[in-house]
């Protein structure tokens, strides 16, 4: 292993490998990265994969680094996000060739994040973990907002429920990723006989142990609320058919019949497959039943905002969560919509590619909810809400958690049945719970329905792809983690300072060597 890394990263001592070799190594390193995440959990790959990328970049020109980084990014996204194939091919009615082609295009585009990252690294900064890790973090952060964001496949998720996740309540997912990448690069340096890097590595590991001893939140003294999560297991290809709508309501009503009297009953995202304007008698009946039995009812529902539609002079539809019943009120409108899973980017141009999705109400013209929304009011508590893909956005969940005693997320991952997508999604919910010190209840259509405690541990989990009622207790928490208070700013500012110092003290003779090799 030491000889291998030495040949990759010490071309001064060995003849530099032709570019094709680091390109292949980077492609494979990116392709295997997702094995570090759910459902595989080979966490050590999250160290090995970026370590290989770091080693292949040694003494490379910026142009070569761009290609190596792009190769890594293509492998990362083609394999790591291949679960999109199910939604595009199976439910989008797109033929297999076009479906794979669309994922290839997505991988080419998303791979540019790593390509630009590695170009900047070799063009402006010295070769050290102290510049590579900050750049990695900045580009993970950029994936949460560039072109609305696709915040998936972060290095820190590999350590959900593992030793390094104790940094999450302090610095969030980007803090965990920073530590992971620094340790990965330090491994390369140690194998190159730069033993000094054992010291910062030991400090980071000791810091993880120390962070695990800190406690920012406590449970409130009152009795936890009893909660029932209803998993209806409605097939995606039937969910929005007009003739199956009543059947869907019958399934959820039947599963709920024994749960009346529980404090909170939660139905998943769009479990009511009609706008509230089309089903008012049903909603009134559910509200009456909930009030009569002392239950709060929380459900996902497409919401047609009639007053706003009149003002905007066109229909305003929202993917929403509604709370009603006993001591419950509120409406949350989804702020982040997932491409290809919930809406079609440039749908007018792509209508010929995804014909089956054009008539799916969940894909047609949903609007984005406002950025500042009140939490749902439940039994004299505040319930922060997130719908499906939104839990992938750390700062969005942080804002909701800062006003809440506990959190709920509803989802319909039937789009990705049989893939790693739903389990990766659940892993993100776990990290959001850990970051903010709040319990998360997650109700889904087909799985994974679960109770997750404030440490990010799964307390209870329903089996996937079957009808199920998952019962549990939900304690209200008080206090705020450091991350909830300060957001991503500490790790971003620290990373920026490291990059500024790296740029200032970069050996200028390296610039000369680049110019001579052009």
Notes on the protein architecture:
The protein is of the alpha/beta class. The protein contains 19 helices and 14 strands. It folds into two domains: 11-215 and 486-505, no CATH class; 220-474, Nitrilase/N-carbamoyl-D-aminoacid amidohydrolase. It is 46% helix and 14% strand. Helix 5 (84-90) packs antiparallel against helix 6, helix 8 crosses helix 16 (421-436) and helix 8 (168-191) runs parallel beside helix 18.
Q: Runs with pLDDT <50, length 5+?
A: 357-363, 509-514
- Stated plainly, the CATH topology of the largest domain is called Nitrilase/N-carbamoyl-D-aminoacid amidohydrolase
Strand content: 5-15%
Spatial strand order of the main sheet: 12-11-10-9-8-7-6-5-4-3-2-13
Distance between the termini: 32 Å
EC number: 2.3.1.269
Function: Catalyzes the phospholipid dependent N-acylation of the N-terminal cysteine of apolipoprotein, the last step in lipoprotein maturation.
Subcellular location: Cell membrane
Family: Belongs to the CN hydrolase family. Apolipoprotein N-acyltransferase subfamily.
In short:
Helix content is 46%, strand content 14%. The chain has 518 residues and is α/β, with parallel strands linked by helices.
SSE layout:
Elements: H1 2-9, H2 20-32, H3 45-56, H4 62-80, H5 84-90, H6 96-124, H7 129-142, H8 168-191, H9 198-212, E1 218-219, E2 225-231, H10 236-239, H11 245-256, E3 264-266, H12 280-293, E4 296-304, H13 306-312, E5 317-325, E6 328-333, H14 347-350, E7 376-378, E8 381-387, H15 394-401, E9 406-411, H16 421-436, E10 440-444, E11 450-452, E12 458-461, E13 468-474, E14 477-478, H17 482-486, H18 489-504, H19 509-517
Parallel strand pairs: 2-3, 3-4, 8-9, 9-10
Antiparallel strand pairs: 1-14, 2-13, 4-5, 5-6, 6-7, 7-8, 10-11, 11-12
Helix pairs in contact: 1-3, 2-3, 2-4, 3-8, 4-6, 5-6, 6-7, 7-8, 7-18, 8-9, 8-16, 8-18
